[in-house]
């Protein structure tokens, strides 16, 4: 159900055609190549060298990394189209041959060298600017100094010194200089961490001075510049201006590299494709003249792949054999989900949980109706739904959004309909109660909770029936009854029991319900014992299975979150509206408009996020747990990058 039928394909051809075959396979993007030695009988491998193809050239991978680095580096400099323009622009479509022709005609090495040269120039300018900034900081501190040390070094009677001391020690140093009485000092500058002084003293006092400053962190100025600090500062600022100008010229030149940037993007596509083919070489078997390739492929794409290979190298040059999947291979076969365009966006919910195994069912179409109902009930506002509908419809129609983001928008677009429907059902429009409603989110909380439980019971019963059907088809008849049908009938029995005794006062209905419960509880014990070679162990397992009734109680209670979130969202929106209603009329229709938009936007975001998270949880824990195990993996074919361009789809032959 909604899982594509797979085939195992084996291909044999001459060495001379190996690269052409791999290109054809990559063009189709539908065949997952697997290690041949792991799937063929040992007797069939005698003529092949299982280690002959274990060579992986690092050249293309290294080139790809260089290209990726260059693209990432240029993103900050090359002029890029705006977000709106990017969303509106469709990717170009290339065939593999066209892409290779363009890239091979371009000198990728020269492009990379050009980028590397500019990077080095900018790095050098940045380093130079860093040094100039440090020098500027030094010169600004000493710009008041009007002489150089060599100009006063020849005095015979006096020593003229310039130095700094840590700020916390400056007062003690000054106190020592004052006590001497024969030493002149003057403060040159003061910073948060240090103080600079000009000191003039008789040469006869030098020893006493040296003894004094030895107690402190005094550092004598070392000035190596040719000009005075003021003149050197002017020269420094002039150089900084020149460096900034040089940098701006280089950046202005790089901004115009749109053609170079595009060529690098195409080169990234090319070398990614090449590196993927090189990795595929390691999965082949080779003899002196032939090579063998094997892999998984969807049955419906086998003919297209054969046609493409035949067209590329000729039908007589390659032998292709497709085989049906054997039961022992089910755990190894990759899975491709196949759903219509309406269901496909909901595959993301299944994929986040787990892919089904090949012999399981795809739970996506089974889960989708419940997901829509539960999400709509939790969001439950006509205004919120209309807003979601309008935004997603506009985005899908106005912009060219593809891939996973496009699927997510379609997912939200679909969910806007149940949100609007339940908004009408509960009579809520941006927190304002509508005159027509089935249930009120303020007055009918208990009724809505009961409605939530009923929806939950429907999903649980459906899941148990699915369990019975699926395991029955898999030949697990005992498990089909014990884990599926028996619990379905027991829950029906409990419903009849409670309904007949507490709601309808119908003893016959109550007795039928009790009978179903008892009969199937005994049935679980009996079938568990019969299906197990150890009868005592079987009865024990059956009893443990019956203990699971507590889990069903918890499952049913979990569905009350449908009511809780619906009521919470509506009441928060109503509270926001009341807050604005308390404002004076002038404020209400001026600043109040902005406030209510902000508050409602916050509630919308929280409502949709909560509805998404909790609806997913109900599917994963309460529903999937009844019939779906998962543990499969998606098909990972030899494919192309398609990051910057689309490649031609040849799957239609």
UniProtKB/TrEMBL annotation:
<keyword id="KW-0175">Coiled coil</keyword>
<feature type="transmembrane region" description="Helical">
    <location>
        <begin position="366"/>
        <end position="399"/>
    </location>
</feature>
<protein>
    <submittedName>
        <fullName>V-type ATP synthase subunit I</fullName>
    </submittedName>
</protein>
<feature type="transmembrane region" description="Helical">
    <location>
        <begin position="411"/>
        <end position="436"/>
    </location>
</feature>
<feature type="transmembrane region" description="Helical">
    <location>
        <begin position="482"/>
        <end position="502"/>
    </location>
</feature>
<feature type="transmembrane region" description="Helical">
    <location>
        <begin position="589"/>
        <end position="613"/>
    </location>
</feature>
<feature type="transmembrane region" description="Helical">
    <location>
        <begin position="448"/>
        <end position="470"/>
    </location>
</feature>
<keyword id="KW-0812">Transmembrane</keyword>
<keyword id="KW-0406">Ion transport</keyword>
<comment type="similarity">
    <text>Belongs to the V-ATPase 116 kDa subunit family.</text>
</comment>
<feature type="transmembrane region" description="Helical">
    <location>
        <begin position="562"/>
        <end position="583"/>
    </location>
</feature>
<keyword id="KW-1133">Transmembrane helix</keyword>
<dbReference type="Pfam" id="PF01496">
    <property type="entry name" value="V_ATPase_I"/>
</dbReference>
<keyword id="KW-0472">Membrane</keyword>
<feature type="transmembrane region" description="Helical">
    <location>
        <begin position="508"/>
        <end position="530"/>
    </location>
</feature>
<keyword id="KW-0813">Transport</keyword>
<dbReference type="InterPro" id="IPR002490">
    <property type="entry name" value="V-ATPase_116kDa_su"/>
</dbReference>
<feature type="coiled-coil region">
    <location>
        <begin position="108"/>
        <end position="142"/>
    </location>
</feature>
């Amino acid at each position: 159900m909604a899982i594509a039928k797979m085939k195992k394909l084996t291909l044999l051809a001459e060495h001379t055609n190996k690269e052409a075959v791999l290109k054809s396979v990559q063009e189709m993007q539908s065949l997952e190549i697997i290690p041949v030695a792991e799937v063929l009988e040992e007797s069939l491998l005698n003529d092949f060298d299982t280690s002959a193809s274990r060579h992986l050239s690092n050249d293309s991978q290294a080139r790809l990394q260089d290209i990726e680095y260059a693209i990432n580096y240029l993103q900050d400099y090359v002029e890029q189209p705006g977000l709106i323009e990017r969303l509106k622009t469709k990717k170009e479509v290339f065939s593999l041959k066209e892409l290779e022709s363009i890239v091979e005609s371009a000198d990728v090495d020269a492009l990379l060298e050009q980028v590397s040269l500019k990077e080095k120039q900018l790095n050098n300018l940045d380093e130079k600017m860093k040094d100039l900034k440090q020098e500027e900081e030094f010169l600004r501190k000493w710009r008041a100094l009007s002489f150089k040390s060599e100009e006063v070094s020849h005095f015979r009677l006096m020593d003229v010194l310039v130095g700094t001391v840590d700020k916390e020690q400056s007062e003690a140093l000054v106190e020592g200089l004052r006590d001497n009485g024969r030493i002149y000092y003057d403060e040159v500058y003061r910073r948060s961490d240090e103080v600079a002084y000009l000191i003039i003293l008789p040469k006869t006092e030098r020893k006493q001075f040296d003894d004094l400053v030895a107690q402190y962190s005094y550092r004598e100025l070392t000035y190596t510049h040719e000009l005075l600090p003021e003149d050197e500062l002017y020269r420094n600022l002039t150089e900084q201006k020149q460096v900034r100008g040089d940098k701006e010229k280089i950046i202005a030149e790089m901004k115009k590299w749109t053609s170079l940037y595009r060529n690098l993007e195409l080169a990234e596509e090319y070398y990614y494709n090449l590196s993927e083919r090189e990795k595929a070489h390691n999965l082949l078997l080779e003899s002196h003249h032939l090579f063998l390739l094997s892999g998984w492929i969807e049955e419906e794409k086998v003919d297209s792949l054969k046609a493409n290979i035949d067209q590329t190298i000729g039908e007589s040059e390659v032998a292709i054999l497709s085989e049906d999947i054997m039961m022992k291979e089910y755990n190894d076969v990759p899975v491709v989900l196949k759903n219509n365009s309406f269901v496909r966006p909901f595959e993301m919910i299944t994929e986040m949980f787990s892919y089904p195994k090949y012999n399981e069912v795809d739970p996506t179409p089974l889960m989708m109706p419940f997901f829509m109902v539960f999400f709509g009930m939790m969001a439950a506002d006509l205004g919120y739904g209309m807003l979601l509908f309008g935004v997603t419809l506009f985005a899908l129609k106005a912009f060219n959004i593809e891939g996973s983001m496009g699927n997510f928008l379609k997912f939200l677009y679909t969910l806007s309909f149940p949100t609007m429907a339940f908004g009408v059902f509960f009579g809520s429009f941006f927190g304002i109660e509508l005159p027509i409603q089935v249930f009120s989110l303020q007055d009918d909380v208990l009724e809505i909770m009961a409605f939530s439980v009923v929806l939950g019971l429907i999903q649980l019963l459906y899941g148990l029936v699915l369990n019975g059907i699926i395991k029955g088809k898999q030949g697990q008849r005992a498990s089909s009854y014990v884990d599926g049908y028996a619990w379905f009938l027991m829950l029906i029995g409990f419903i009849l029991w409670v309904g007949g005794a507490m709601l309808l006062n119908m003893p016959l209905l109550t007795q039928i319900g009790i009978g179903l419960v008892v009969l199937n509880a005994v049935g679980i014990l009996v079938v568990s014992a019969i299906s197990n070679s150890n009868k005592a162990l079987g009865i024990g397992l059956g009893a443990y299975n019956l203990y699971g009734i507590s889990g069903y109680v918890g499952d049913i209670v979990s569905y009350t979150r449908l009511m809780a979130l619906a009521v919470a969202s509506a009441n928060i929106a109503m509270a926001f509206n009341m807050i604005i209603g308390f404002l004076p009329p002038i404020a209400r229709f001026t600043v109040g408009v902005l406030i209510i938009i902000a508050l409602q936007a916050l509630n919308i975001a929280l409502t949709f996020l909560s509805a998404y998270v909790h609806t997913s949880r109900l599917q994963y824990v309460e529903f999937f747990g009844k019939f779906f195990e998962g543990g499969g993996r998606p098909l990972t074919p030899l494919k192309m990058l398609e990051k910057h361009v689309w490649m031609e789809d040849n799957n239609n032959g």
